[in-house]
Amino acid sequence: MITVLAQPALITPVYSIDGYNLAIVVDSDLSALYSFRYVQEVTIDGDLITQTRVAPNVVNGLGKGVLQPNRILEDFLSYDLHNVFDFKVCENSFIQWSVRIGEESDGTLDGTGSEFEVVFGATATGYSWNGTIQYADDFTYTDFLMGATGASSNRFLTNAPSTQDINITESSFIYWLNGVASGGVTPPITSTPMALRVNVINSSGGFTTSNIYYVIPSIPLANPEMISLAVGPPDLNALADAGLVVDEDGDPVETPIISCDTLYYTIRLTDFTI
After folding, report:
1. How much is the pTM?
2. Which of 143, 208, 209, 240 has a CA positioned 20 to 30 A from the CA of residue 77?
3. Residues 30-39: pLDDT tens digits?
4. Which domains are seen in the chain, by residue range?
5. What is the largest CA-CA distance in the chain?
């Protein structure tokens, strides 16, 4: 019988310094059998990708197995080009995976069996994105989930500084994991209405506009997703020109919202709704 001793968090970056962030540690009461192997069958976004075998660790007679699907998952993650001023679901940078775990042997201790049989007995599932969390970054995936209770404090998917210089004609993009996790080791992910809140400070140090919002269209969320949004000056101005940036009363704001008179502006995700 297969027993899963350790598995990754629900959402885990595919890369890490030591390669063990996606390790699945398993044990079996049959690991002493002749030619015993653990079997991992990897499925990505519902499609069966590959089936591989891992020998048990016989050091000290432990017989445990360490499955590392991250090397397989890496080949199915790339990047997403964002060439529109609106938001984008990053389908190439974020995947759902499943590992069906089995055991294979000839059923004997001495190799006299005539047939090898694979019996599956456990499954590990999760999501991964094209990124890494360094040792110095004491974060978990819930630190990157943006939702009603965490949008103001949780983190974008970047190691860039929170304050950056930008040209008036330059596009810029933010990325985040969309959803809210609640309860349990593998909590459900639910969607919440979200908006980008913008405050614009003019060259005199006063507010040009205060608390204006781009309400992100509702994203049907059966599973968590990675989202990107263009937030450079031309991107925000284009959203405003399209009537998609509103004040706290839901009325469209005057354009442009970012100009040569702008000293700086701040952005934050929030749960504002109209």
Report:
1. 0.79
2. 143
3. 888 888 999 9
4. 2-79+93-131 (2.60.40), 139-270 (no CATH)
5. 86
